[in-house]
Protein backbone atom coordinates (compact mmCIF):
# COMPACT_ATOMS: atom_id res chain seq x y z
CA UNK A 1 0.00 0.00 0.00
CA UNK A 2 1.22 3.53 0.61
CA UNK A 3 4.84 4.47 0.51
CA UNK A 4 5.16 6.39 3.75
CA UNK A 5 7.50 4.01 5.60
CA UNK A 6 6.27 4.77 9.14
CA UNK A 7 2.75 3.78 8.18
CA UNK A 8 3.87 0.38 7.02
CA UNK A 9 5.95 -0.13 10.15
CA UNK A 10 3.04 0.78 12.39
CA UNK A 11 0.65 -1.46 10.43
CA UNK A 12 2.87 -4.53 10.64
CA UNK A 13 3.63 -3.95 14.33
CA UNK A 14 -0.11 -3.57 14.99
CA UNK A 15 -1.00 -6.77 13.06
CA UNK A 16 1.68 -8.73 14.94
CA UNK A 17 0.46 -7.41 18.33
CA UNK A 18 -3.15 -8.11 17.49
CA UNK A 19 -2.48 -11.76 16.69
CA UNK A 20 -1.17 -12.46 20.17
CA UNK A 21 -4.14 -10.85 21.95
CA UNK A 22 -6.72 -13.23 23.45
CA UNK A 23 -8.44 -11.24 26.18
CA UNK A 24 -10.22 -7.94 26.63
CA UNK A 25 -7.74 -6.52 29.12
CA UNK A 26 -4.78 -6.87 26.72
CA UNK A 27 -6.97 -5.55 23.92
CA UNK A 28 -7.70 -2.41 25.91
CA UNK A 29 -3.99 -1.96 26.56
CA UNK A 30 -3.42 -2.25 22.80
CA UNK A 31 -6.05 0.36 22.09
CA UNK A 32 -4.22 2.76 24.42
CA UNK A 33 -0.85 1.88 22.83
CA UNK A 34 -1.97 2.61 19.24
CA UNK A 35 -5.04 4.84 19.34
CA UNK A 36 -4.65 6.54 22.74
CA UNK A 37 -3.84 10.22 23.30
CA UNK A 38 -0.16 9.46 23.62
CA UNK A 39 -0.36 6.43 21.32
CA UNK A 40 1.73 5.51 18.31
CA UNK A 41 -0.70 7.03 15.79
CA UNK A 42 -0.95 10.38 17.58
CA UNK A 43 2.80 10.63 17.83
CA UNK A 44 3.15 9.79 14.14
CA UNK A 45 0.59 12.46 13.18
CA UNK A 46 2.44 14.99 15.32
CA UNK A 47 5.75 14.15 13.68
CA UNK A 48 4.38 14.85 10.16
CA UNK A 49 5.69 18.38 10.49
CA UNK A 50 9.22 17.08 10.20
CA UNK A 51 8.58 15.72 6.68
CA UNK A 52 9.29 17.69 3.54
CA UNK A 53 6.20 19.75 2.67
CA UNK A 54 5.37 17.82 -0.54
CA UNK A 55 5.26 14.46 1.26
CA UNK A 56 3.05 15.63 4.13
CA UNK A 57 -0.43 15.41 2.51
CA UNK A 58 0.14 11.89 1.23
CA UNK A 59 1.59 10.69 4.58
CA UNK A 60 -1.23 12.37 6.49
CA UNK A 61 -3.86 10.68 4.35
CA UNK A 62 -2.23 7.27 4.82
CA UNK A 63 -2.03 7.74 8.57
CA UNK A 64 -5.73 8.64 8.74
CA UNK A 65 -6.66 5.56 6.74
CA UNK A 66 -4.50 3.46 9.04
CA UNK A 67 -6.20 4.94 12.11
CA UNK A 68 -9.64 3.97 10.76
CA UNK A 69 -8.38 0.48 9.96
CA UNK A 70 -6.89 0.03 13.44
CA UNK A 71 -10.12 1.12 15.08
CA UNK A 72 -12.18 -1.27 12.96
CA UNK A 73 -9.85 -4.14 13.67
CA UNK A 74 -9.81 -3.45 17.42
CA UNK A 75 -13.61 -3.46 17.42
CA UNK A 76 -13.77 -6.70 15.40
CA UNK A 77 -11.26 -8.34 17.75
CA UNK A 78 -13.31 -7.27 20.76
CA UNK A 79 -16.41 -8.98 19.38
CA UNK A 80 -14.40 -12.11 18.55
CA UNK A 81 -12.92 -12.30 22.07
CA UNK A 82 -16.34 -11.81 23.70
CA UNK A 83 -17.86 -14.56 21.58
CA UNK A 84 -15.03 -16.89 22.42
CA UNK A 85 -15.34 -16.18 26.14
CA UNK A 86 -19.08 -16.80 26.06
CA UNK A 87 -18.56 -20.10 24.30
CA UNK A 88 -15.93 -21.14 26.83
CA UNK A 89 -18.25 -20.21 29.72
CA UNK A 90 -21.17 -22.13 28.30
CA UNK A 91 -19.03 -25.20 27.83
CA UNK A 92 -17.61 -25.06 31.36
CA UNK A 93 -21.02 -24.48 33.02
CA UNK A 94 -22.70 -27.36 31.24
CA UNK A 95 -26.20 -26.17 32.11
CA UNK A 96 -28.66 -29.05 32.04
CA UNK A 97 -31.99 -27.38 31.44
CA UNK A 98 -33.81 -30.69 31.93
CA UNK A 99 -32.91 -30.83 35.65
CA UNK A 100 -35.87 -30.25 37.98
CA UNK A 101 -35.93 -26.89 39.77
CA UNK A 102 -34.49 -26.73 43.27
CA UNK A 103 -37.16 -27.11 45.96
CA UNK A 104 -37.91 -24.20 48.26
CA UNK A 105 -37.68 -24.53 52.04
CA UNK A 106 -40.95 -23.55 53.63
CA UNK A 107 -41.83 -22.63 57.17
CA UNK A 108 -44.37 -24.42 59.34
CA UNK A 109 -46.21 -23.79 62.56
CA UNK A 110 -44.66 -25.16 65.73
CA UNK A 111 -46.36 -28.50 66.58
CA UNK A 112 -47.87 -27.00 69.75
CA UNK A 113 -49.27 -24.02 67.85
CA UNK A 114 -50.60 -26.37 65.21
CA UNK A 115 -52.28 -28.40 67.96
CA UNK A 116 -53.71 -25.26 69.50
CA UNK A 117 -55.17 -24.10 66.18
CA UNK A 118 -56.60 -27.53 65.37
CA UNK A 119 -58.36 -27.89 68.72
CA UNK A 120 -59.56 -24.27 68.61
CA UNK A 121 -61.02 -24.96 65.18
CA UNK A 122 -62.81 -28.08 66.38
CA UNK A 123 -64.24 -26.19 69.35
CA UNK A 124 -65.30 -23.12 67.37
CA UNK A 125 -67.10 -25.61 65.10
CA UNK A 126 -69.06 -26.63 68.20
CA UNK A 127 -70.03 -23.00 68.86
CA UNK A 128 -67.28 -22.04 71.31
CA UNK A 129 -65.56 -18.64 71.20
CA UNK A 130 -61.89 -18.06 71.93
CA UNK A 131 -61.10 -16.10 75.09
CA UNK A 132 -57.64 -15.02 76.22
CA UNK A 133 -56.37 -13.94 79.62
CA UNK A 134 -53.14 -12.41 80.95
CA UNK A 135 -50.09 -14.59 81.58
CA UNK A 136 -49.14 -12.29 84.44
CA UNK A 137 -52.11 -13.08 86.62
CA UNK A 138 -53.43 -12.03 90.00
CA UNK A 139 -53.43 -14.50 92.85
CA UNK A 140 -57.14 -13.75 93.19
CA UNK A 141 -58.04 -15.09 89.71
CA UNK A 142 -55.42 -17.81 89.64
CA UNK A 143 -56.43 -19.32 93.01
CA UNK A 144 -59.11 -17.65 95.15
CA UNK A 145 -61.81 -17.41 92.47
CA UNK A 146 -61.21 -21.03 91.62
CA UNK A 147 -62.01 -22.17 95.12
CA UNK A 148 -58.34 -22.53 96.08
CA UNK A 149 -57.86 -20.41 99.24
CA UNK A 150 -54.38 -19.59 100.58
CA UNK A 151 -54.32 -22.61 102.90
CA UNK A 152 -55.36 -25.11 100.21
CA UNK A 153 -52.91 -27.97 99.55
CA UNK A 154 -53.62 -27.67 95.79
CA UNK A 155 -51.42 -24.55 95.84
CA UNK A 156 -48.36 -26.70 96.53
CA UNK A 157 -48.90 -28.60 93.31
CA UNK A 158 -49.00 -25.38 91.34
CA UNK A 159 -46.04 -23.50 92.76
CA UNK A 160 -45.06 -20.74 90.39
CA UNK A 161 -43.10 -17.56 89.90
CA UNK A 162 -44.29 -14.53 91.83
CA UNK A 163 -43.61 -10.91 90.89
CA UNK A 164 -42.39 -8.41 93.48
CA UNK A 165 -45.19 -5.94 92.64
CA UNK A 166 -48.64 -6.24 94.22
CA UNK A 167 -51.71 -4.65 92.67
CA UNK A 168 -55.16 -3.67 93.82
CA UNK A 169 -57.53 -6.22 92.39
CA UNK A 170 -61.13 -5.95 91.22
CA UNK A 171 -62.18 -7.26 94.64
CA UNK A 172 -60.60 -4.20 96.25
CA UNK A 173 -57.91 -6.21 98.01
CA UNK A 174 -54.16 -5.92 97.52
CA UNK A 175 -53.16 -8.87 95.43
CA UNK A 176 -49.92 -10.64 94.67
CA UNK A 177 -49.11 -11.14 90.97
CA UNK A 178 -47.69 -14.30 89.48
CA UNK A 179 -47.16 -16.16 86.23
CA UNK A 180 -50.45 -18.05 85.92
CA UNK A 181 -50.18 -21.76 86.73
CA UNK A 182 -53.10 -22.76 84.51
CA UNK A 183 -55.59 -21.31 82.03
CA UNK A 184 -58.46 -21.83 84.52
CA UNK A 185 -58.46 -18.16 85.69
CA UNK A 186 -59.75 -17.24 82.21
CA UNK A 187 -62.96 -19.13 83.17
CA UNK A 188 -63.80 -16.52 85.79
CA UNK A 189 -62.56 -13.60 83.71
CA UNK A 190 -64.81 -14.76 80.84
CA UNK A 191 -67.88 -15.20 83.05
CA UNK A 192 -67.38 -11.71 84.48
CA UNK A 193 -66.94 -10.25 81.00
CA UNK A 194 -69.59 -12.10 79.00
CA UNK A 195 -72.10 -13.47 81.57
CA UNK A 196 -74.28 -16.53 80.92
CA UNK A 197 -74.94 -18.52 78.81
CA UNK A 198 -71.34 -18.94 77.70
CA UNK A 199 -69.13 -21.24 75.67
CA UNK A 200 -65.41 -20.45 75.49
CA UNK A 201 -62.07 -22.10 75.00
CA UNK A 202 -59.02 -20.36 76.41
CA UNK A 203 -55.61 -21.38 75.03
CA UNK A 204 -52.30 -20.07 76.29
CA UNK A 205 -49.01 -20.40 78.10
CA UNK A 206 -48.85 -21.39 81.76
CA UNK A 207 -45.95 -21.63 84.21
CA UNK A 208 -44.84 -23.77 87.12
CA UNK A 209 -41.68 -24.40 89.08
CA UNK A 210 -40.93 -27.68 87.29
CA UNK A 211 -38.13 -28.79 85.01
CA UNK A 212 -37.52 -32.43 84.10
CA UNK A 213 -38.00 -34.68 81.01
CA UNK A 214 -41.78 -34.62 81.39
CA UNK A 215 -42.25 -31.13 82.87
CA UNK A 216 -41.17 -27.76 81.58
CA UNK A 217 -41.40 -24.48 83.55
CA UNK A 218 -43.53 -23.13 80.70
CA UNK A 219 -46.16 -25.18 78.91
CA UNK A 220 -49.43 -24.72 77.05
CA UNK A 221 -53.00 -25.46 78.04
CA UNK A 222 -56.46 -25.05 76.62
CA UNK A 223 -59.33 -24.43 78.98
CA UNK A 224 -62.93 -25.13 78.01
CA UNK A 225 -66.00 -23.69 79.74
CA UNK A 226 -69.70 -24.08 79.09
CA UNK A 227 -72.27 -22.30 81.26
CA UNK A 228 -75.98 -22.73 80.61
CA UNK A 229 -79.16 -24.04 82.25
CA UNK A 230 -79.49 -27.74 83.12
CA UNK A 231 -76.14 -28.78 81.69
CA UNK A 232 -75.54 -32.47 82.27
CA UNK A 233 -72.47 -34.60 82.70
CA UNK A 234 -73.44 -36.38 79.48
CA UNK A 235 -72.94 -33.17 77.47
CA UNK A 236 -69.43 -32.87 78.89
CA UNK A 237 -68.60 -36.49 78.05
CA UNK A 238 -69.95 -36.16 74.53
CA UNK A 239 -68.18 -32.85 73.87
CA UNK A 240 -64.73 -33.86 75.07
CA UNK A 241 -64.95 -37.33 73.51
CA UNK A 242 -65.88 -35.88 70.11
CA UNK A 243 -63.13 -33.32 70.37
CA UNK A 244 -60.50 -36.04 70.94
CA UNK A 245 -61.86 -38.12 68.05
CA UNK A 246 -61.78 -35.12 65.72
CA UNK A 247 -58.24 -34.19 66.79
CA UNK A 248 -56.76 -37.68 66.35
CA UNK A 249 -58.84 -38.35 63.26
CA UNK A 250 -60.51 -41.57 64.41
CA UNK A 251 -62.88 -42.91 67.01
CA UNK A 252 -60.94 -43.64 70.18
CA UNK A 253 -62.19 -45.61 73.15
CA UNK A 254 -62.32 -43.46 76.25
CA UNK A 255 -62.93 -43.77 79.97
CA UNK A 256 -63.72 -41.23 82.66
CA UNK A 257 -62.11 -41.68 86.08
CA UNK A 258 -63.29 -39.94 89.23
CA UNK A 259 -60.79 -37.30 90.33
CA UNK A 260 -60.50 -34.13 92.33
CA UNK A 261 -60.10 -30.47 91.39
CA UNK A 262 -61.09 -27.66 93.76
CA UNK A 263 -62.94 -25.79 90.99
CA UNK A 264 -65.17 -28.65 89.80
CA UNK A 265 -67.57 -30.92 91.59
CA UNK A 266 -67.81 -33.73 90.70
CA UNK A 267 -64.45 -33.94 88.92
CA UNK A 268 -63.00 -36.52 86.60
CA UNK A 269 -60.12 -37.25 84.30
CA UNK A 270 -60.36 -38.48 80.75
CA UNK A 271 -58.23 -41.36 79.46
CA UNK A 272 -58.24 -42.19 75.77
CA UNK A 273 -57.13 -45.44 74.18
CA UNK A 274 -53.36 -45.38 73.51
CA UNK A 275 -52.85 -43.73 70.11
CA UNK A 276 -49.60 -45.66 69.62
CA UNK A 277 -50.52 -49.29 70.45
CA UNK A 278 -54.29 -49.20 70.93
CA UNK A 279 -53.74 -51.26 74.09
CA UNK A 280 -52.07 -54.15 72.26
CA UNK A 281 -48.46 -53.71 73.39
CA UNK A 282 -47.54 -54.60 76.96
CA UNK A 283 -44.22 -52.77 76.49
CA UNK A 284 -45.58 -49.65 74.74
CA UNK A 285 -43.34 -46.68 75.63
CA UNK A 286 -46.24 -44.23 75.35
CA UNK A 287 -48.87 -45.86 77.59
CA UNK A 288 -46.36 -48.01 79.54
CA UNK A 289 -48.49 -51.03 78.69
CA UNK A 290 -51.65 -49.74 80.35
CA UNK A 291 -53.43 -49.13 77.02
CA UNK A 292 -54.69 -45.74 78.27
CA UNK A 293 -53.49 -42.15 78.04
CA UNK A 294 -54.52 -39.48 80.50
CA UNK A 295 -55.39 -36.40 78.43
CA UNK A 296 -57.67 -34.01 80.30
CA UNK A 297 -59.06 -32.91 83.64
CA UNK A 298 -62.67 -31.79 83.89
CA UNK A 299 -65.86 -31.64 85.85
CA UNK A 300 -69.03 -29.70 86.59
CA UNK A 301 -68.09 -26.14 87.54
CA UNK A 302 -68.15 -25.66 91.32
CA UNK A 303 -70.96 -23.28 92.46
CA UNK A 304 -68.36 -21.08 94.20
CA UNK A 305 -66.57 -20.56 90.88
CA UNK A 306 -69.82 -19.69 89.08
CA UNK A 307 -70.57 -17.21 91.85
CA UNK A 308 -67.05 -15.70 91.56
CA UNK A 309 -67.88 -15.21 87.88
CA UNK A 310 -70.88 -13.08 88.83
CA UNK A 311 -73.43 -15.70 87.78
CA UNK A 312 -76.12 -17.24 89.97
CA UNK A 313 -75.33 -20.95 90.47
CA UNK A 314 -79.00 -21.56 91.40
CA UNK A 315 -79.97 -20.72 87.81
CA UNK A 316 -76.93 -21.71 85.80
CA UNK A 317 -74.53 -24.62 85.90
CA UNK A 318 -71.91 -25.89 83.50
CA UNK A 319 -68.76 -27.82 82.90
CA UNK A 320 -65.09 -27.04 82.44
CA UNK A 321 -62.10 -28.95 81.17
CA UNK A 322 -58.36 -28.42 80.87
CA UNK A 323 -56.10 -29.99 78.27
CA UNK A 324 -52.31 -30.01 78.11
CA UNK A 325 -51.54 -28.91 74.55
CA UNK A 326 -47.89 -29.97 74.65
CA UNK A 327 -48.86 -33.51 75.57
CA UNK A 328 -51.48 -33.56 72.82
CA UNK A 329 -48.86 -32.42 70.29
CA UNK A 330 -46.40 -35.07 71.52
CA UNK A 331 -49.02 -37.80 71.15
CA UNK A 332 -50.16 -36.70 67.71
CA UNK A 333 -46.69 -36.08 66.26
CA UNK A 334 -44.86 -38.87 68.11
CA UNK A 335 -42.42 -36.64 69.99
CA UNK A 336 -40.97 -38.46 72.96
CA UNK A 337 -39.25 -35.74 74.98
CA UNK A 338 -41.16 -32.66 76.11
CA UNK A 339 -38.02 -30.52 76.11
CA UNK A 340 -37.61 -30.97 72.34
CA UNK A 341 -40.66 -28.80 71.86
CA UNK A 342 -38.76 -25.84 73.26
CA UNK A 343 -35.38 -26.65 71.71
CA UNK A 344 -34.27 -24.59 68.72
CA UNK A 345 -32.37 -27.48 67.15
CA UNK A 346 -34.59 -28.96 64.43
CA UNK A 347 -32.09 -31.63 63.33
CA UNK A 348 -33.72 -34.14 65.68
CA UNK A 349 -36.95 -33.94 63.72
CA UNK A 350 -35.11 -34.50 60.46
CA UNK A 351 -32.77 -37.22 61.74
CA UNK A 352 -35.26 -40.07 61.51
CA UNK A 353 -35.42 -40.64 65.26
CA UNK A 354 -38.97 -39.39 65.20
CA UNK A 355 -40.45 -41.01 62.13
CA UNK A 356 -43.90 -39.53 62.15
CA UNK A 357 -42.53 -36.00 62.61
CA UNK A 358 -39.97 -36.60 59.89
CA UNK A 359 -42.67 -37.51 57.42
CA UNK A 360 -44.55 -34.35 58.23
CA UNK A 361 -41.43 -32.22 57.78
CA UNK A 362 -40.82 -33.77 54.37
CA UNK A 363 -44.37 -33.40 53.15
CA UNK A 364 -44.34 -29.66 53.79
N1 LIG B 1 -56.38 -26.33 85.79
C1 LIG B 1 -56.07 -27.74 85.87
C2 LIG B 1 -54.58 -27.94 85.90
O1 LIG B 1 -53.87 -27.11 85.43
C3 LIG B 1 -56.66 -28.50 84.70
C4 LIG B 1 -58.15 -28.55 84.77
C5 LIG B 1 -58.76 -29.58 85.43
C6 LIG B 1 -58.91 -27.54 84.24
C7 LIG B 1 -60.13 -29.67 85.54
C8 LIG B 1 -60.32 -27.61 84.32
C9 LIG B 1 -60.88 -28.70 85.01
O2 LIG B 1 -61.10 -26.71 83.82
O3 LIG B 1 -62.23 -28.75 85.10
O4 LIG B 1 -54.13 -28.94 86.35
CATH topology of the largest domain: BirA Bifunctional Protein, domain 2
How much of the residues is beta strand, in percent?
Answer: 15-25%
Distance between the termini: 76 Å
Shape: elongated
As a percent range, the share of helical residues equals 40-55%
CATH architecture call of the largest domain: 2-Layer Sandwich
- Main sheet characteristics: 7 strands, mixed
Structural class: alpha+beta
CATH classification class of the largest domain:
Alpha Beta
What number of structural domains do the residues give? 2
Number of strands: 10
Description of the molecule:
By secondary structure, the chain is α+β, with helices and mostly antiparallel strands. Helices cover 41% and strands 21% of the residues. It has 13 helices and 10 strands. It has helices spanning 5-20, 24-35, 40-46, 56-93, 111-125, 139-142, 154-157, 185-194, 233-248, 303-308, 325-333, 347-350, 355-363; strands at 129-130, 136-138, 162-168, 174-179, 198-207, 218-228, 254-261, 264-273, 292-301, 317-324. The longest helix is centred in the first third of the chain and has 38 residues, at 56-93. Bound molecules: 3,4-dihydroxyphenylalanine.
Key descriptive features of the protein:
364 residues, alpha+beta, BirA Bifunctional Protein, domain 2, 21% strand, disordered C terminus
Q: TL;DR of this structure?
A:
The protein is of the alpha+beta class and 364 residues long. The chain has 2 domains: 4-92; 111-363, Bira Bifunctional Protein, Domain 2 (BirA Bifunctional Protein, domain 2, 2-Layer Sandwich), CATH 3.30.930.10.
Amino acid sequence: MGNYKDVEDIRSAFEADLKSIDNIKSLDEMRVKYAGKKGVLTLALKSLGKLPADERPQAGQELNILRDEIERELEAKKIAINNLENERKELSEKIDVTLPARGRDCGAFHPVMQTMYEIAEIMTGLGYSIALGPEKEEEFYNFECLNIPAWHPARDMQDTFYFPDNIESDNGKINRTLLRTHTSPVQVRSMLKYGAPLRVVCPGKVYRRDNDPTHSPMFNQMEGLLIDKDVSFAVLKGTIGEMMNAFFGRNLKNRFRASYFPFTEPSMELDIECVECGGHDAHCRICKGTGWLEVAGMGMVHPNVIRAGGIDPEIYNGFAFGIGLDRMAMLKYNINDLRLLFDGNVSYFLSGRSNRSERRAESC
